[in-house]
Specification:
With 217 residues, this protein is α/β, with parallel strands linked by helices. It contains ten helices and six strands; from the N terminus they run βαβαβαβαβαβααααα. Strands 2-1-3-4-5-6 form a six-stranded parallel β-sheet, sandwiched between helices. The radius of gyration is 24 Å and the shape is elongated.
Length: 217
């Protein structure tokens, strides 16, 4: 079965070039083309393609908003951004809008076909050109957010933190760990002091983010 593809780019020469090359692929079929974002949304709803290739800078409706509209109506459609923009903020915006692939237009054609097959199989594809900066930014953000690592807590403090985050009262924590209630209260205060957070809600959020309990935030 062929992968049904919709191509959206406001530059006719670029659009037709992509379509011409895709038609040489035995397992791919171009079912439509759009010259702006609004047209891409309308054609996606009408044609229900498997994959939509979107430029970001398009008239009438930009690629980010077009991706968001397509994804909200057709969550099973896979969206690939093909654009001149390789900056981290564009990548993040497209991924948040529902895209599962991102390639700069400087990519070789075989990378595009690889990305199409990849997203069609249910995976995410980021070109190495953009993946590096995005990962670096993510790690930097994580470093800032997690300025106080869980390693500052003792094992007993982590045990108390987990049980508190899982909704246990001080009496229940004391019973589970075979310690007094006053000791539990003291450990909990030490945890809050070390982490710079206050209240059960903040402790719970930290524990979930650090993977210290089986809950989801």
């Amino acid at each position: 079965m062929c992968i049904r593809i919709l191509v959206a780019d406001d530059h006719r020469l670029v659009r037709e070039g992509i379509i011409s090359l895709l038609r040489e692929e035995a397992d791919m079929e171009v079912v439509g083309e759009a010259s702006n974002g609004r047209q891409a949304v309308e054609l996606a709803a009408k044609l229900t393609p498997d994959v939509v290739i979107l430029d970001i800078a398009m008239p009438d409706l930009n690629g980010v908003d077009a991706a968001r509209a397509i994804f909200s109506r057709l969550p099973k459609v896979r969206i690939i951004a093909l654009t001149v923009h390789a900056e981290q903020r564009f990548v993040v915006n497209m991924l948040r809008a529902g895209a599962t692939g991102y390639l700069p237009k400087s990519s070789a054609f075989d990378e595009l076909t690889r990305a199409i097959r990849c997203v069609h199989s249910g995976k995410t594809y980021l070109s190495p050109i953009v993946a590096g900066p995005v990962l670096k930014d993510l790690l930097e953000r994580m470093g800032k957010e997690d300025a106080v690592p869980v390693s500052v807590l003792s094992l007993r403090e982590r045990e108390v933190l987990q049980l508190v985050a899982e909704g246990k009262a001080s009496k229940e924590v004391a019973k589970a760990l075979h310690i007094s209630i006053n000791t539990v209260i003291r450990h909990r205060q030490h945890v809050m002091d070390k982490l710079g957070v206050h209240g059960v809600a903040a402790l719970t959020k930290y524990a979930i983010r650090e993977g210290l309990c089986g809950l989801e935030w």
